[in-house]
Amino acid sequence: MKVGNGYVLISPCRDEADYMRQTLDSVVAQSLRPAKWIIIDDGSTDETPQILGEYARQHDWIEIVTRSNRGRRAVGPGVIDAFYAGLDTISLGDFEYLCKFDLDLNIPPRYFELLIERMKQQPRLGTCSGKPYFPDPDTGELISEMCGDEMSVGMTKFYRTRCFEEIGGFVREVMWDGIDCHTCRMKGWLARSWDDPDLRFLHLRAMGSSQKGMLTGRQRHGFGQYFMGTWFPYMVASAAFRMTRPPVVVGGLAMLWGYITSWARGLPKYNNAEFIRFLHAYQKRCMIVGKRKATEEIEQKILGTNHQVVV
Which ranges carry the Glycosyltransferase 2-like domain (predicted)? Predict the structure, then answer.
C-alpha cells in the first residue's frame, strides 16, 4: 500500500453516522492514501463522534477537530466555515493537493491516485473530480446526478494547492462550489470532472436533497444561482433541463422558484463585478453554441491553440 505524501483531505461533517463508515472504509482502502485527513465534527448529536474516534485510533493520519453544537445542520456557509476550521489546523504549503471531501460518499479504490495522475498530465488543471451517482429509492438503480464536465463536484473538490490559493479559496455561501470553478477559468485554470468507471462514486445522500427534503434543496440551489449572479435566461434554461431529472418537473420548478423569490426579496448577491462579467459572457456563449463548445473556447485560450484540452 502506497502512502501519498502529496494530498490532504478536509471533511466537514455533522450527524453522518448512517453513511460515514462506508466513506471511511473507502478512503482507508485507497491505493494512494492521503498524508493527512482532517475531519471536522461540526456539533454532531448522533454516534458520529464515537465512530470518528474509533477510526482515528486505528489510523494515525486521521485527525478529528470538534466544534460545538450550533443546534442545527447548516449547509452552504456552515459547511465552508467548518472546512476552514479544519484548514486552519494545517500549513497548506505542506501539501501539493487538497480535497474538500464529504462523509456520505463511497469512492472506488484508485480514485485519488487517478486524479493525481491527471493533475500531473495537465499542469493547468486546477480542480477535478469523478462523477456522483445515487441509488433510486424505489428500485436501487444507480442514477447519475448529471454534473457538468466543466465543474468539479462539491462533495469531492480535489484541488491543486496553488490554484486554490490563487482563486482565494471558497466563498462562504450556498453556490461556493460553482463560483470556485468559474473563478478557476477566469484566473487561467481548468476545472473538470469525468464519468470514467474508475472515477464514478456513490453519493449516499443525493445532491440537493437537503435535510428538509429534495424540493427544499432545489429551492436552495435556485437561491445559490441567484447569489452567484447567474443570467436569468440561462437560469430558465437550466431549470427546464432539471425538470427532466428526478423529481421530474417539480425539481426544476423549485429551482426557478428559489431564484425568483430571492430576486423579489432583494437578497444579497456575490459582490465581484469582474466575476459577474465573466460569468454572464460565458453563460450567453453557452446559450449560443452550447456549454461544451463554450467551455472548450475558454480552455483553448487558457492552454493556447497548440495544446490539447483535457477530456
Answer: 10-137
Of 171, 203, 235, the residue at which a domain comes to its end is: 203
**Which residue is associated with the grid cell 502529496?**
6
User: 215 to each of 167, 193, 234, how far by Cα in Å?
Assistant: 31, 25, 20
Q: Which of 65, 50, 57 is nearest to 9 (CA)?
A: 65
Instruction: Output the CA angle 110-111-115, nearest 5 degrees.
Output: 110
Domain boundary among 203, 222, 247: 203
Residue range of the domain that includes 23: 2-203
> Does some domain include residue 259?
yes
pLDDT tens for the chain, 311 residues: list them: 444 459 999 999 999 999 999 999 999 999 999 999 999 999 999 999 999 999 999 999 999 999 987 655 556 789 999 999 999 999 999 999 999 999 999 999 999 999 999 999 999 999 999 999 998 888 888 989 889 999 999 999 999 999 999 999 999 998 999 999 999 999 999 999 999 999 999 999 765 444 457 788 889 999 999 999 999 999 999 999 889 877 889 999 999 999 999 999 999 999 999 999 999 999 999 999 999 999 999 999 999 954 555 55
User: Which amino acid does the sequence have at 205?
Assistant: R
Residue 309 lies in a domain: no
Beta pairing, strands 156-160 & 97-101: antiparallel
Among residues 207, 219, 211, the alpha carbon closest in space to that of 132 is found at 207
Same domain, 267 and 168: no
Cα separation, 112 vs 129, in Å, equals 9
Q: Could you tell me which of 122, 135, 223 has the C-alpha nearest to residue 178?
A: 223
* 139 shares a domain with 270: no
